[in-house]
Amino acid sequence: MNPIHPHTTADRNGRPVSVGTRVRVISVPHTVLEDLDPTERWRVASMVGETFEVYDVDAWGGAWVEKWWHESQDKATSHSLGLNPSEIEVVPDSV
Predict the structure, then answer these.
(1) What is the pLDDT of residue 12?
(2) How far apart (Å, rounded) are the C-alpha atoms in residues 9 and 7?
(3) In a 3-state reduction of DSSP, which class is residue 9?
(4) What pLDDT is recorded for position 3?
(5) Is 90 exceeded by the pLDDT of residue 67?
(6) How far apart are CA 46 and CA 30, in angstroms?
(7) How far apart are CA 60 and CA 83, in angstroms?
(8) How far apart are CA 28 and CA 25, in angstroms?
(9) Helical residues (DSSP H) of the chain, grouped into ranges
(10) Could you state, in order of their start, the residue ranges of all structural domains in the chain?
(11) Distance CA 67, CA 46 (A)
(12) From the CA atom positions of the chain, what is the Rg in Å?
């Protein structure tokens, strides 16, 4: 266990997930999407099927991932998601 990031979780198959593990987003909860404006909803929904490195695991077992969109040379937007084990899958060879 990493002393800086002491929490671990698992993916939907029970494989261990900690900071640095690469995971594929399987789903995003509808409750997250329903409160977003259309542009943000599209951006967050676009994360499904993509692979990200977990940058934090919170005390409740949420694996946190982040995606950036570069809108111009001077403007970028990001979204972070704390995902439950059922919403992620470890990418092979990243355990």
Answers:
(1) 97
(2) 7
(3) strand
(4) 54
(5) yes
(6) 13
(7) 10
(8) 8
(9) 30-33, 38-45
(10) 9-90
(11) 10
(12) 14
Residue 77 has pLDDT above 70, yes or no: yes
pLDDT(70) > 90: no
Report the candidate in 92, 93, 83 with the shortest Cα–Cα distance to residue 9: 83
CATH assignment of 9-90, among 2.60.40, 2.50.20, 1.20.1630, 2.30.30: 2.30.30
Only one residue has tokens 């991932």, namely 65
Residue 66: the pLDDT is 97
How many angstroms separate the CA atoms of 2 and 19, rounded? 8
Using an 8 Å Cβ cutoff, are 23 and 17 in contact?
A: yes
Give per-residue pLDDT as tens, 12-35. Answer: 999 999 999 999 999 999 998 998
Please say whether the beta carbons of 54 and 64 come within 8 A.
Answer: yes
